[in-house]
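Example S7 (structure tokens).
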């Protein structure tokens, strides 16, 4: 039997029968993996309360018998990302990021870049040193960038004229064309999504380079909000799926004032 040992983050957990749990984890070495944790609900000795969403673990698992699901053998807690579950806004953001990863990545596709990005945003979310909304911009920009779905923000997605050569200060977004469109070009059916020139440049600045430097961008609350409205429409549109947790995130944000 082949055994796999890898660091992993729990993206999702659900009950399976009376005793077992099914976990979806993002691993460093093997990408997204679904695992069954047998008797996890019954025996606290094997997995003592650590198989929770966003827990950072070291896990050992095996292929199980035949073509069945991977079976979790051992898990030890490596990080305290789980503590963010006491904060509803942080939980909402982390759930959205986790669902994007689970929806988009194919099982077993090795993606250390996405793993490191996830660890980076969760660490800052727990530490509380950066607004959650700013971490979400970074996560979404890097996530789509790494998937080759980066939005066109440096020029009009239709006529390709550079933003710096255009006098206008606000741009409509055309999701189908993959970015901003200038006033001269046929725009999208709905002009609800807009980005200011300053916000565009800040988003572009976050798209490349090392992660800690990207977090030094200073957004006004208004720019943070319009940038997240844009990415929360753009990312689901381009991955072709709408995460259920996005509705929850919007609800929590609305009730708590914009966070
Ligand atoms: Zn144009």
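Recovered sequence:
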């Amino acid at each position: 039997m082949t055994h796999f040992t890898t660091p992993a983050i729990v993206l999702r957990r659900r009950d399976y029968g009376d005793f077992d749990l099914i976990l979806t984890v993002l691993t460093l070495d093997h990408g997204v993996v679904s695992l069954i944790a047998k008797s996890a609900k019954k025996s606290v000795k094997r997995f003592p309360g650590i198989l929770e969403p966003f827990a950072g673990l070291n896990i050992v698992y095996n292929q199980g018998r035949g073509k069945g699901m991977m079976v979790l053998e051992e898990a030890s807690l490596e990080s305290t990302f789980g503590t963010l579950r006491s904060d509803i806004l942080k939980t909402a953001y982390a759930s959205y990021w986790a669902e994007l990863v689970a929806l988009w990545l194919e099982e077993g596709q090795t993606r250390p870049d996405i793993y490191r990005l996830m660890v980076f945003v969760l660490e800052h979310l727990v530490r509380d040193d950066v607004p959650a909304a700013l971490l979400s911009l970074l996560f979404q920009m890097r996530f789509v960038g790494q998937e080759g779905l980066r939005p066109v923000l440096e020029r009009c997605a239709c006529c390709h004229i550079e933003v710096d050569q255009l006098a206008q200060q606000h741009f409509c977004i055309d999701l189908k064309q993959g970015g901003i469109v200038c006033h001269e070009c046929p725009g999208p059916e709905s002009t609800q999504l807009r980005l200011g020139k300053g916000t565009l440049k800040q988003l572009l600045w976050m798209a490349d380079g090392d992660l800690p430097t990207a977090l030094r961008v200073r957004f006004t609350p208004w720019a943070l909000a319009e940038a997240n409205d844009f990415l929360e429409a753009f990312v689901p549109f381009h991955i072709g799926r709408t995460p259920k947790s996005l509705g929850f995130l919007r609800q929590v944000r609305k009730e708590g004032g914009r966070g």
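Notes on this example. The pocket of zinc ion is lined by residues 156, 158-159, 161, 181-182, 184-185 (CB under 6 Å).
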